[in-house]
Amino acid sequence: MKLQERIARNDIDDQIYLGGVVEKATSGEFGDLYRLICNGITAETLAESRINAKMSADRYLGRLEALDMIQEKLILMIDLKNRLKEEKKEEQKI
Fold first, then answer.
1. Closest to 14 in 3D by CA, of 84, 86, 92
2. Which letter does DSSP use for residue 1 in this model?
3. What are the distances in angstroms from CA 24 to CA 8, 16, 20, 75, 94?
4. How many CA atoms lie within 13 A of 58 on its CB side?
5. Chain mean position to CA 1
6. For the segment 30-85, what is each residue's pLDDT rounded down to a tens digit?
7. How many helical (H) and strand (E) elements, i.e. helices and strands, does the chain have?
8. Helices 57-93 & 29-51 angle (0-180, nearest 10)
9. What domain range includes position 76?
């Protein structure tokens, strides 16, 4: 099943699977690279905003907020996966 189908269907098993995909990707070298890229973009944006007075504070803050939202969404997906897996284990014990 494709990821798009899992996202569209969005049942408990799909949420667990998608959280696992995110966890696997972000815990390895890709995750390290992703964080380095985000930190690099943040530093570049800050430097650009200081050099280029034409960049509004709203634009600068919007870029930073977008990066933060992506990182937060990934963390929440992993947390949801862990919580749902624990709930499924509890249900199977009963």
1. 84
2. -
3. 21, 12, 6, 12, 30
4. 0
5. 21
6. 888 888 787 777 777 767 766 766 767 787 778 778 888 888 888 899 999 999 99
7. 4, 0
8. 160
9. 3-82
What the block records as the tokens of 54 is 């034409």
Distance, in Å, from the CA atom of 35 to the CA atom of 28, rounded to the nearest integer, reads 11
Domains contained in the chain, number:
1
- Hey, how many other C-beta atoms are within 10 angstroms of the C-beta on 32? 11
Query: Which one is predicted more confidently, 52 or 3?
Result: 3
User: Is there a contact between 12 and 84 (Cβ–Cβ < 8 Å)?
Assistant: yes
Q: For every residue of 47-89, which 3-state class applies, written as one string?
A: HHHHHCCCCCHHHHHHHHHHHHHHHHHHHHHHHHHHHHHHHHH
Residue 92 lies in a domain: no
